[in-house]
Amino acid sequence: MLKIDEERAIIFKDNEEIGLGTPEGFEILSNLWLRSGWDAKYVYSFAWLGRPIIQLPEDMIRIQELIYDIKPDLIIETGVAHGGSLIFYASLCKAMEKGRVVGIDIEIRAHNRKAIEEHFLGSFITLIEGSSTAAETVTQTEKLVQGCQTVMVILDSNHSYSHVLKELELYSPMVTKNSYIVATDGIMAFLKGAPRSQPDWDTNNPKNAAEDFAKKNPGYQIIEPEFPFNEGDIKKRVSYWPSAYIKKLT
């Protein structure tokens, strides 16, 4: 049970008084906000350059910081939906004058394909229709990786533990040293019982898959990218993507 005294700027939690403006207070409120946003479908209210982008804005700003730092030749994303995140990554490639984007989905609906391909950034994007874990899809993607010096992978398709773990096994070899494979939407681990959740989400989620993959593969480690600018007291992301950033070390 939480109580908030706005006048005194104090959060009362389990007989403990926590300052509203402290990192601890901010984290408590952020976690409540994340849960409230999930229940209210907050992320279903944004677009990027005309395409719906079903992502938390902070997650996109944070991954932008990493992409600018790494400047990949190729960004691979599993999961296309409306294509908003593909357009987002393509806009970064255009701005940096470097890089291309590959979008993979088991089904790319005709109207979404048309909108992506006819977008003014469509020339930066290659679409592959097929299961991200199918051998033919992986082979097509591997061909596009050839010759690229820096490759980043973002996993945002089926979020079950088994599927994400399989994607990590298949796509991590395509990632280049000191780049990342990012397993999104691990917030599922904390949403059991929430609207649109499933009873097994506390174990069946990308966060657990990413952590188990990193434990079994010493060449990869979950490493939070550093904030390139921070004059405040907050050191943690407010994110739908906990334990998402897996860095390739060797």
Keywords:
three-stranded antiparallel beta sheet, 250 residues, 7 helices, seven-stranded mixed beta sheet, 34% helix, 12 strands
Structural features, described:
The protein is α/β, with parallel strands linked by helices and 250 residues long. The chain is built from seven helices and twelve strands. The protein has helices at 23-39, 57-70, 84-96, 110-118, 135-145, 161-171, 206-216; strands spanning 2-5, 10-13, 16-19, 47-48, 51-52, 74-78, 100-105, 125-129, 151-155, 180-183, 220-222, 245-248. The strands form three sheets. The protein has a seven-stranded mixed sheet with strand order 8-7-6-9-10-12-11, sandwiched between helices. Strand 7 (100-105), helix 4 and strand 8 (125-129) form a beta-alpha-beta unit. The longest helix has 17 residues, at 23-39. It is globular, with a radius of gyration of 19 Å. The N and C termini lie far apart (46 Å).
What's the arrangement of secondary structure elements?
Layout: E1 2-5, E2 10-13, E3 16-19, H1 23-39, E4 47-48, E5 51-52, H2 57-70, E6 74-78, H3 84-96, E7 100-105, H4 110-118, E8 125-129, H5 135-145, E9 151-155, H6 161-171, E10 180-183, H7 206-216, E11 220-222, E12 245-248
Parallel strand pairs: 6-7, 6-9, 7-8, 9-10
Antiparallel strand pairs: 1-2, 2-3, 4-5, 10-12, 11-12
